[in-house]
Amino acid sequence: MNPTLSRWTVGVMGSATESHDDDADAVGELLTRLEVNLLTGGGQGVMRSVARSFITHRRGAGISIGILPCASETDRSAPRAGYPNEYVELAVHTHLPRSGNEGTDDLSRNHINILSCAAIIALPGGAGTASELALAERYGKPAMAYSADPARLSRLPASVARSNKIEQIEGFLAGALRRP
Asked: Quick one: DSSP state of residue 94?
């Protein structure tokens, strides 16, 4: 692996319970070709699946970063159970417990997830993924949803651009990551 880290970080957001391996594998492989850093919430489901693909296909620069929630509002010194997954290379522990329907709350790590990325790719997910897309819009971060099966994206905000072709995601990232 190239010891020089990429300048760019791409966030991949998605379901914490469903892996959507086909979509996650396509995105993970694309990110390795682009030699960017991958940032996820560091847990299971899509987060684990895309990080596994990223690590498996990586040949150049970039690392797998996970922004972890704490266990609870009363136990902020330990990560939530299941975090980080085994494919996170840099785990960033937070004191922030909220997620899901509370994903835009000030006590959610989702703000860090979005603010730390140059661009966001959303894979199928629920309320937590939708909240991350709302934050991307709030903070002016470019975002696009992807699934080979467009029906899987039905729970995401209609205002977010979406594609079922990985080539379109690559084009979106080429524009979003355009170097100055």
From this structure: -
- Residue 53 corresponds to which amino acid? S
Among the listed residues 62, 82, 57, 58, the one whose alpha carbon sits nearest the alpha carbon of residue 71: 82
Cα separation, 128 vs 145, in Å, equals 14
DSSP classification of residue 44: S
Two tokens at 82? Answer: 């299941």
Kind and range of the H or E element at 49?
A: helix 46-57
Q: Residue holding tokens 């205002």?
A: 159
Q: How many residues does the chain have?
A: 180
Cβ(118)–Cβ(8) under 8 Å? yes
State the chain's mean pLDDT as an integer. 95
Report d(CA 165, CA 111) in Å as an integer. Answer: 28
Q: What is the pLDDT of residues 157-177, one digit of tens each?
A: 999 999 999 999 999 999 999
**pLDDT higher than threshold 60 for residue 180:** no
Structure tokens at 85: 């997954």
- The amino acid occupying position 4 is T
The answer to whether 153 and 147 have CB atoms below 8 angstroms apart is: yes
